[in-house]
Amino acid sequence: MRSPVRAVEASGELVRLGEIARVAIGKGLAHYAARLGYGAKGAAGEESGGQGDARRLREALEELGPTFVKFGQMLSSRTDVFSEELVDELRKLHDAAGEFPAETARRIIEDETGRKVSELYASFDDRPMAAASMAQVHCATLHDGTAVVVKVQRPGIEATVEADIAVLRRIARLLDASVPSMRAFNLEGLVAEFSESLRDELDFEHEARNAQRFAEANRGEAAIFVPRIFAQATTRRVLTMDHSPGHRLDDGTIPEQQRPAIAQALMQLYLTQVFEHGVFHADPHPGNVFLMPDGRLCFHDFGSLGQLSPSVQESLRQLFLAVVARDADWLASAYLGMGGATAQLDRAAFTKDLSQALERYYHQASAGSQSLSAILQEFVRLGRQHRIRLLRETTLLLRGFAELESLVHDLDPAFSSLEAFRAYSGRLLRRAFTPDLGIANLAQVYRMTMAGREAAAEFPVTLRRLLGRLERGEALFDVRHHAGGSLERHLLHASNRLAFALIIAAIIVGSAIVMAAHAGPHVGDVPILALAGFVIAGVLGVAWAAIALRSGKL
Q1: Which one of the listed residues 283, 412, 478, 525 is annotated catalytic?
Q2: Is 345 a member of any domain?
Q3: Are residues 216 and 286 in the same domain?
Q4: Range picked from 160-169, 189-198, 499-508, 545-554 for highest mean pLDDT
Q5: In 118-184, where do the E strands start and end?
Q6: Interval 53-80 mean pLDDT
Q7: Is 301 an annotated catalytic residue?
Q8: Considering the domain boundaries, does residue 485 fall inside one?
Q9: In the chain, how many domains are there?
Q10: Within this chain, do residues 333 and 295 fall inside the same structural domain, yes or no?
Q11: Phi and psi (nearest 5°) for 477?
Q12: Same domain, 170 and 204
């Protein structure tokens, strides 16, 4: 029997689906709503245009609220799945919301931490410095005088998100069932990926761990400042961290003569994050990167942190180096290492397309257009044509790199990402040939060294024995049979048993075919030939087993 709670949840999902259908119809997407069973039947045949539909979809997502805005933003990173028109439009989605009362923020802080706001902070500014769909941020001061910012989760947002995720799952299933062309996008998989990512974003303790991981990875980088996390005032719904006194890189306050050096430092730091640390900021837009008064670069908002496995990191190294080397075959191998291809992949055709894209890129680069993220997006477009799907961590990196390159070009329009990587590639290759050796790597080196030492000590003796046997005309290897009797007799017995087993199997298969075809005379509904065959096979099998058991050599 269906539980009352689940019945209410299902009812709520249907109501929300109706709301979504009404928004879709209102935005001119009735042909999609009709396919899900909503709206007029004739609407399914409406004409739709790629760019017009993309714009209408963006507007519909904005109207449907924060979960759908976040979902659209996540889809905008999947350039390996969706068209350029849709991705470009979804990137225009803005995560903005009105402020909620300071009294509510204070109550959430006290409920979460179990302490009064006055016990946690010497001062707390009731005016939010920023508000977004998931949280708003207040300035505060700790009792030791440290300036901090306090991020407070929007009330009720977690329940709203969970309800909308359930609706998105239902929509994905409906589209999968009713629109065959949608199955190639694996919408259910995308919703599952999105729900995991959004739940992480709603868990501020997860963001705190990300910030600490990022700080640890960049501990040796003097040019980076990472805000500290204050654990005593941080929970799943409240995050307290250093308030950085810097300013945005795009606010126009940076002197013109300093911009090229800052652009170079920013790109160098990002390449180091990706290729050396394997941990990178996945959303380096202008609001998340500040310039500190002392010249250091400060990264904010660690809800989205990319982490590369060693194998993907190596594939990325090879991909970037293949671009520098203009080697399309190497490039294809590296790209395939970053994702998965179908069994129908035509490797030669994919390599040819990559070669042509590389040549176009270098031709454009010689004319002054040198966007490295543009050629990476072209590789993704070609991969999409050849049904190659990238790993999530790779798509996060490509989105992050595109945002960073845009920020760098705003600082210095003449900046060349390709030349920056060429300059960095020497350091990358030196690191590949002389990696940093931690305790684990040193232990492996020790093991290999000792094994090599033992093999080297034994080698002269072993070589002398082999040469002696060759000089005496003896075989280098002996094949011995220890089971007793001649090897020839044992092989003969084995082949006889195999032949006998094959004969029995053939009788059984033949009888089964006669049985299925109902061929020949019958006894009742059973063919006589099939029955006789099964009886013969059974007698032979029992006789063979009895002989083998009597000989003791089954």
Answers
A1: 283
A2: yes
A3: no
A4: 160-169
A5: 123-124, 130-131, 135-141, 147-153
A6: 80
A7: no
A8: no
A9: 4
A10: yes
A11: -130, 145
A12: no
> What pLDDT does residue 517 have?
61
CATH at 129: 3.30.200.20
Structural element, H or E, at residue 84: helix 84-90
Say yes or no: 102 and 224 in one domain.
Answer: yes
Could you tell me if 39 and 182 lie in one domain?
A: yes
Task: Give the pLDDT score at 57.
Answer: 84
Residue 530: inside a domain = yes
**pLDDT over 60 at 439, yes or no:** no
- Count of CB atoms situated within 10 Å of the CB of 64: 19
Q: How confident is the model at residue 7 (pLDDT cuts 50, 70, 90)?
A: very low
Q: State yes or no: pLDDT of 8 exceeds 50.
A: no
Strand ranges inside 308-446, DSSP E: 339-341, 388-390
In this structure, the dihedral spanned by the alpha carbons of residues 223, 229, 230 and 233, taken in order and rounded to 10 degrees, is: 150
Boundary residue ending a domain (211, 243, 275): 243
Q: Which of 23-27, 101-105, 474-478, 499-503 has the lowest mean pLDDT?
A: 474-478
Question: Among all chains, which residue has been given the structure tokens 């759908």?
Answer: 68
Residues 316, 292 share a domain: yes
pLDDT at 417: 86
What does the alpha-carbon distance between residue 553 and residue 133 come to, in Å, rounded to a whole number?
76
- Does residue 476 lie within any of the structural domains? no
Residue 42 has pLDDT above 60, yes or no: no
Of 265, 253, 238, which is closest to residue 408 (Cα–Cα)? 265
Q: Are residues 39 and 121 in the same domain?
A: no
Q: Can you give the residue range of the structural domain that contains 414?
A: 250-436
Let me know whether 152 and 282 are in one domain: no
**Long-range CB contacts for residues 208-213, cutoff 8 Å, separation at least 24:** 208/234, 208/239, 208/241, 208/302, 210/302, 210/303, 210/305, 211/241, 211/302, 213/279, 213/305, 213/307
Of the listed ranges 144-158, 275-289, 346-360, 389-403, the one predicted with least confidence: 389-403
- Which of 100, 144, 147, 148 has its CA nearest to residue 126? 100
Instruction: Give the C-alpha separation, 308 to 392, whole Å.
Output: 10
Which of 14-23, 109-118, 327-336 is most confident?
109-118
Q: Are the C-beta atoms of residues 109 and 89 closer than 8 Å to each other?
A: no
